[in-house]
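User: Hey, quick favor. My workstation is busy. Could you predict this chain's structure for me?
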Amino acid sequence: MRGIFLLPALAALAAAALDEDAGVGRWWHLRGELGDARARIERLRGEVDGLRAESARFESDPFAVERAIREELLVAQPGQVILRLVETDRSSIRIP
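Assistant: No problem, here it is.
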């Protein structure tokens, strides 16, 4: 008598496991998305920590705002010269 109930139960379990919208595949996909979301949260937390540190520097260092403006806008005070260093590919450098 148990065998009569076991076969439909196994068939229902197999159907649920193979169903792409509600089965193991969907669970696996959502698990991957959750991992990606957690990694993104950690990256964003690091970014927020960096921005908080930068904000604290702006509040405590009187020259931090001036330095940031010069770096961002490439503005120099009279008599100063701005040098921009560009990274090059080492394979293109020729040595005579």
